[in-house]
Amino acid sequence: MAEKILLVTTTSGFVPQFEMNNVKYLLSLGYEIHYASNYNTPIYGNDNSRLDETDIIRHQIDFVRSPFRLSNIKLLRDLVKLMKEEQFVLIHCHTPMGGVLGRLAACISKCGVVMYTVHGFHFYQGAPLMNRLMYKTMEWLLAHVTDVLVTINEEDYQAALKFKLKKGGSVFYTPGIGIDCKRFSTIENIRQKIRSQYQLQSDDFVLITCGELIKRKNHVAILKALTYIKDYHIKLILCGSGVLEQDIRHKIREYGLEECIFMIGYCYNIQEHLKAADCFVFPSYQEGLPVALMEAMTSGLPVIASKIRGNVDLIVPEKGGFLVEPKDIKGFADSILKLKENNELRQQMGCFNSEKIQQFDVEIVKKKMKDIYQFAIAKTVK
């Protein structure tokens, strides 16, 4: 009988969106892959259909994102029960609550080697004091029951090195989850088709952003910047879905931007939309190493992004774009205008990003993750 590996994430769209290369590798080694998540709250799409025909065995756990909900006690019990029943040799956790409850359950059940990929610690530089006190303490404690801790940006890697892991454990760095540079570079002759779809004029300057519609993504900063500029030839394609959709639509009406902004929901052909744009904007308060930003770089776009962890790993100021403090509305507005008025600068920055992003190519990440999994798997041998 094949040995079993469990993946744990809070929401069910995570694995098909970001982890399928790792799943394929583990399947190729002969492992049976199980996936514990909340399938009632898919993200990166409207359903769980992308998990069909993947050979992944699913387990419903009613995860919530808040660490303060009493329901987390029942969720922990459910995870412990699952782990005791299935006897997984390796448990790989992702997302904040998946990482907390998954590791606690593994410790209680005494089941398997414990691996956690950090997609962005909550105690990042500039985080509220409460985040730094509570989440850093939580991660310090959980590190003691963690065998393998994987980080995806430099700030988190340096923070993780200060933790004491389980005896024989180790901290690793990998440059994100990887980006398929070839997939984006082969898209051609699509720019005008997409622009026509939105009835954009030849002199329209098109911004694009992509991300879940939640507070952390700070989409309202770009809305305010466009209101500050008052140039109706600057358009924004806003890709993403989420709990703040109606709030953002209300802001668009309030600011009088209905003719300038296209809210298109989750975008299944993002590479084509990126090719239709002139600049990528990304005003988040918090990131790990953002795939959306990497996709924009691969598409040869200049970038205006918030000056935060993850973004600073990717964007070289004045070479690949501009980095702006998340609340600096004038800074975003001025950067938009600089790029709108200088086509040569846009081309230079876009070319620079196309070269820079090669360091984060998926083939590089695949090799690093294979080495990390081999380290973890070696620890499963008793």
TrEMBL record:
Annotated ranges, domain Glycosyltransferase subfamily 4-like N-terminal: 5-151
Domain Glycosyl transferase family: 191-350
Origin superkingdom: Bacteria
InterPro entries named among the record's database cross-references: Glyco_trans_1, Glyco_trans_4-like_N
CDD domains: GT4_CapM-like (cd03808)
A molecular function (GO) term: glycosyltransferase activity
Name of the protein described by the UniProt record: Glycosyl transferase family 1
Species this protein is from: Lacrimispora algidixylanolytica
